[in-house]
Amino acid sequence: MTREFSAGNYRFIPSVFQYSAGAAADDGYEIERVRFDRLVPLAEGFARAAKFIQEAGRPLTAFCACELRSPAAFSEDGFRAFNLHYVKTLSEWGIFDGTTNPVARSNVCPEIDPPSEPSFYAFSFTRPTAAKSPTFVIAGGAEAREGGGSYVERTVRYRDLSPEGLREKVRFTTTCQMENRMTAFGFGWKDTTGVQAYSVHDFHHALVDELVRRGALRSGLTWHFARPPVIDLEYEMDCRRVMREAVI
Prior knowledge:
Blueprint: E1 3-5, E2 10-12, E3 22-25, E4 29-41, H1 42-55, E5 63-69, H2 76-92, E6 104-110, E7 119-128, E8 136-142, H3 151-154, H4 163-185, E9 194-198, H5 207-212, E10 222-224, E11 226-227, E12 236-241, E13 244-247
Parallel strand pairs: 4-13, 5-6, 9-10
Antiparallel strand pairs: 1-2, 2-3, 3-8, 4-7, 5-7, 6-11, 8-12, 9-12
């Protein structure tokens, strides 16, 4: 279920053309996460990420994950148009080959004070290390099943915002998205150092059974009051294990 991206010194879980489902550093390398102190527009974010990576002595192909923020949830056609624009830079960096994209990604939409254009929140890249501890980043996943068909067809409890509907959305995202992706790398919740959730709905009633008892909150939970990137998706998560994080 995983493939190597030797130019970046990491392996990844193949998914759709715009992103992979996760990235894990190769032996002898670690993933470093860099968060911007303020949101920066997409082009500026790519430029600042490139500068940071190169000043660390790494090639641009070391770029392995990013966290984006968009003004509002997209339609399916609008989301595809955005993604076609986004991958152009990855092509220029020698990462996206036109078919396969190894870079993991989250892209969510703040409900309050959103950016005026798609922007960077954080990015991750690989660098050499003598440490033996593995590192990984799991891409954002919402309550939509993988495979063909529209989001309407694939979304768990579509437009159901009842307490039980939200619980099932949280359960699906926790198990079928996060846990399955970590398992592909040989990891689990016990390995995570950070977990993030994105929703504008109250999902506290699902926390204990669907997250805490599963060990997902061993390092706590960062809740962003934001929507997933496609209209009518209501809950998203991502998670990671990184030893080095910076804010710039």
